Amino acid sequence: MKNVMVVDDDPGVLNTIDLVLRRHGYTVVKAPNGHLCLEHLRQGFRGVVLMDIMMPGLTGWETIREIIAANLLDNILVCMLTAKASPGTEGEGLEEFVFDYLPKPFDNVELMSMLDNAIECLEP
After folding, report:
1. Angle, to 10 degrees, between the axis of helix 11-23 and the axis of helix 108-122?
2. Number of domains within the chain
3. 92: domain range?
4. Collapsing DSSP states into helix, strand and coil, what is residue 97?
């Protein structure tokens, strides 16, 4: 199961990550905001959720809170994308729900390494 949902409000980031992951055999679902991420999870998406922190509407942290509240954590791992130097205080108390962080800008080797590790943890 090499499923990744990319949650980012930047179309360039969504499309670039989609292209890179598909070249490496991943199945990619794109969500331009937290609300659509939640909808995909409710519809049964399972895999890695690669989530931007800073998004309009629901931030990445707010989306994680909604995922927890809706009990949608089964068979997913959340990895965060961040343009911030540190994750900040908004996510305090949610660290246990985040598998890894990847700072922007990132290179494809870092991205693939993080996702490969996450996928390996999800596989039985």
Report:
1. 70
2. 1
3. 3-122
4. helix
pLDDT tens column, 17-46: 999 999 999 999 999 999 999 999 999 999
Cβ neighbours of 109 (radius 10 Å): 8
Say how far apart CA 18 and CA 27 lie, in whole Å: 9
Do residues 44 and 15 lie in contact, with contact meaning Cβ atoms separated by under 8 Å? no
- Residue-level pLDDT at 10: 94
Domain containing residue 99: CATH number = 3.40.50.2300
- What is the DSSP-derived secondary structure letter of residue 24? T
Residue 82 pLDDT class (50, 70, 90 cuts): confident
